[in-house]
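Figure 2 data, in text form.
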Amino acid sequence: MPALPLDEAGQYVAAAYLVFVVLLIVYVAIMAVRIGHISREVESLADLAERRERERQAVGQAQAADSVGGDEKRSSDEATA
């Protein structure tokens, strides 16, 4: 003889499935929010890395221009001396 008659057990099984589905939906929603936060963080880090790379390139170009300009000045100073 079963612990519960089958007509009463069906309600408990349905309730258990309902609780499981609700918990699953809550879990998926939490993970979606976390992935959204991580995605925004990755985008901001990529923007920061891109800005730093552009700044390094600009500094490198400025230093290269200074060294070329310095060579030209030394050549003109040597010519006048």
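Caption note: The radius of gyration is 35 Å.
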